[in-house]
Structures are given as C-alpha cells and as structure tokens.
Specification:
mainly beta; 2 helices
Amino acid sequence: MKYIFLIGILLISFFSFSQNDDYERIWKNPPPPFNRFHTDSEGSKIEYSKEQLINFETYVFADTLFVRKTPNLKSSIQDTIFVGDDIKIIDGGEIFKIGNREFPWFKISYTNSRNTKQTGYAWGGLISFKALRRGNTKFVYGIPKIIVKGKKSDNITESVVQVKAVENKQTIAKIEMAINSESSGLSNAIILNNNNLANISNILVVSFSGEACGIPTYYFYLLWDGQKFHQAPKSESVGEAGIFSEGYSLIFPSDKGGIKDKVIQNYSLEQVIDEEKDKWKRKNSKVIYSWTGSEFVKD
C-alpha cells in the first residue's frame, strides 16, 4: 500500500551526481532527526528510530494543537498549544494514520498557557519538521495534505508542502508547493541572508528528496520580505549514478558569478548514450531572471 512515505533515510549515492550550489547549501549539515523516518523493505510500513528523536526541539506546525493525555485521538485533551510554540520530543510511539498521512505519536514537553511545564502526547503531523527563526519571526513547515490520484491499484500521490511565518502564536503568511510524494523521503531547511536581493530580509530554503535513484530532489527558495513569501525560480535535480543526471540550480547576486539584481537559473543534462564506449549526451543552458524588488521577471 503506497501512500506517503513521509520521511526517509539519506542515501549518499543518490546525491553523488548533484554536488551543485543548491546541494551544498542545504545538505552540508545533516537533516534534523525528526525527518529520519523510512519504510520497511516491502515499502508498506513506516519505521523510525526513537533514539534519534530524544530531546529534539522544534515548533508546533498546526495552527492549533490539542495535547492529549494518552497517544489516542479519543484521549482527553489536557492542553491547547499553538503554531510556533516551543516543544521538545521526549519519546516516540506508534505510527498512526490520519487521512493519507502517517506519523508517529510523540510524547512532548511544552509550556502551557499558565506558564507551567507539562508533558503530553501530540501526533507528528502537527509538528514542524524543523525549528527555524530570525528575530521575532519563526518559520515552520510540514505536509498538511496529500492528494491521491489515479486508480487504487496504481495510486499517484502528491504532497502539499506548507511553510508558515509565525509571530506571537499567529500565522502572518504562508505559501504552498506541491511535490511528488516519492520525494518526501527526507527533508531539511536553512535560513540564508538576502543574497543581495532588494527588499528581502532572508531566504528560506526548504528541500525534499526521495529514498532512491530516479526520484527528484526539490529545493524551494522562499524569499521573505517581512510580510510575505516570494518563490524563486525552479531548482531541482534528479538522476541515477552512471546513467543520467538532470537539474536546475540557482545563482544569486552574492554567489560567485552572480549578477546584481538577477538570479541565474542553470540547466544541465548528462545522459549516457553508449555505456560500453562511455559516450554521453550533455546539454547546458541558462535563463536569467530580474528581481524587481517584488517579483521575478524573465529577461
């Protein structure tokens, strides 16, 4: 049964073809342990290491999270916490499915509205994959929805990635992107400076990748101006070692080879034509986008 295999293990060989600037930015540091879930050998069951999650600190992703006394939707609610609230995972429990999403129940510690430290249980789909912050603004992200397409015997699933900017327990802006659900095996995110783009405070980079060769890796560059997100041109890569690699990567004004007020989107393709004779098809091109201060315009 193939719904979403939400978080997986990193296969180093899968990334060997894509050592570009996007890869270096996002994967030079290991992803948070919350994202190290994987499927069993039959691809039908979510598994994860509880030990990796002990004391992992993150934020609430859902606008409202009901903390339960036991890891069960029928359990009584002991507290309500809100988007951006600090939590710490102190233990992991059974995988539980709501709709098409599967996550573990977690035992968490948190501070309630009475400013008292408490422990309780929360479902993982309501928790941000990583804690990101600049000043008073927190950034949270997760997968709130999965769309199943096609017949039951041959499902195609699309995961909706949602990123929120949060201040004082309120979502002040959000943006959504769609990915192939097979690419949701592993995720990581970082915050960059504005890379010399006018009217931008920071750039949030969120990446999702798969558990095998031939599955795309997505790099979402989200420009934050203090009020809303602006999505940069496409950046993604896919490949299979020794057979092909294809991808788009971005060069910003502050990068080597960058141009003032512009973002360069490089495209590259390498595909083996004759393996015995080591013959390859290679193609490279680029598109330049001007940043107006509020949007990208293709030159």
